[in-house]
Design goal:
By secondary structure, this protein is α/β, with parallel strands linked by helices. It folds into three domains: 2-59, Beta Barrel (OB fold (Dihydrolipoamide Acetyltransferase, E2P)); 64-214, Rossmann fold (3-Layer(aba) Sandwich); 222-275, Orthogonal Bundle (Ribonucleotide Reductase Protein R1, domain 1), CATH 1.10.40. Helix content is 24%, strand content 27%. It has a six-stranded mixed beta sheet with strand order 10-9-8-11-15-14, with helices on both faces. It has a five-stranded mixed β-barrel with strand order 1-2-3-5-4. The chain has a two-stranded antiparallel sheet with strand order 6-7. Helix 2 (88-100) packs across helix 7. The longest helix has 16 residues, at 117-132.
Length: 278
């Protein structure tokens, strides 16, 4: 009998597949090695239920390389405003990479209680802008954040010390993660055993992805970077040149929108650094 399910855990060559409400540990068929496409956590698969084999892998909507996971719905960017200092450059770099990988980003600002009123006004300006251009934005103590994870597969990312463990403890107090603990349950286990697993939280599955924070723009063209600054796309048709890079060209609508304050100056400055691979 064949059944459909989703891989939520991998230890070496053992894959735990969630089939309805049952966890079934399966091996992959040898054919996957021959075609060079092994199953990974997040895959929707068909299994031979009696013999406990994975026999087919559904087409993936997205795939991350480090760590190798598929079909991610959300990537929550944990963004500290203090210790470590807020970095719009890092936030925008992560957003561009997440958009490029066809994953919906969610921004979560942490440590708002550590800043004074002047800094709070600055951060609130960023919050308002990112909301205006279409991103979901939360403060880490917002109870509404708990509602977004149901029936979703979510990865957490952000710089070390940004407050991921504190946020995870807030979402599920039973985790009892140490506040300096960076990784939840995704990465390499002890010795050489590969261990990849998603943890059930708030009606969905969540994992921490420390590797995302060190992503570069390798493999992305300058055009890819441009196209994943989402607010540019609604104005770029008004540029004089259809292939405008919004840098040295004249009659550029994006530069006009920066000048009149429609597009945030720091976003545009980060964009220029990114296309120059800075």
């Amino acid at each position: 009998m064949h059944r459909k399910g989703r891989i939520i855990k991998q230890i070496s060559n053992d894959y735990t597949v969630l089939v309805a409400d049952e966890f079934v540990v399966c091996k992959p068929r040898g054919k996957f090695r021959k075609i060079g496409s092994s199953p990974i956590v997040g895959d929707y698969v068909t299994i031979d239920y009696e013999n406990k084999y994975i026999i087919e892998i559904d087409k993936r909507k997205n795939e991350l390389i480090r760590p190798r996971i598929a079909n991610v719905d959300y990537a929550v960017v944990i963004t500290s405003v203090q210790i470590p200092e807020f970095s719009s450059n890092l936030l925008d770099k992560l957003l561009v990479n997440i958009e490029y990988n066809h994953i919906e980003p969610i921004i979560c600002f942490t440590k708002m209680d550590l800043i004074d009123d002047n800094k709070r006004d600055e951060i609130n300006t960023y919050i308002s802008y990112y909301k205006k251009i279409g991103y979901k934005v939360f403060i880490n103590t917002d109870d509404k954040l708990k509602n977004i994870f149901k029936n979703k597969l979510t990865v957490f990312t952000g710089q070390s010390g940004a407050g991921k463990s504190t946020l995870l403890n807030y979402l599920d107090s039973s985790l009892k993660l140490a506040t300096n603990e960076v990784s939840l349950a995704l990465g390499r286990g002890k010795h050489t055993t590969r261990h990849t697993e998603f943890i059930p939280i708030c009606g969905g599955y969540i994992a921490d992805t420390p590797g995302f924070s060190s992503l570069s723009f390798d493999g992305m063209t300058s055009e890819d970077i441009r196209d994943n600054f989402i607010e540019f796309n609604q104005y770029r048709n008004n540029c004089e040149y259809s292939d405008c890079m919004h840098d040295n060209e004249e009659n550029c609508e994006i530069k006009r929108k920066v000048q009149d304050g429609t597009i945030m100056k720091s976003r545009y400055e980060n964009y220029l650094k990114f296309i120059k691979k800075g």
